[in-house]
Amino acid sequence: MTKVTALFFTLLLCSMLVHAMSIRLEPAFHQESLAKPHQQSVEAVDESCEGVGEDECLMRRTLAAHVDYIYTQKHNNP
Question: Which interval of the chain is the signal sequence (predicted)?
Fold first, then answer.
């Protein structure tokens, strides 16, 4: 009986390891897909700074960076 139990638990452990290794074979996000939306938002902030002072432009960029940081945190935890 102990040999059967040991064999069962060994097979169960091997099965769990194989399953855990096969869950994700590639990264959740590709670098190309993450880089493009961010570049577009930076360009939008640069365009919105035309005709305003340096302090106002810095405030807008900081706000955009904080908002971008907040919303991208959801994507980093799969």
Answer: 1-20
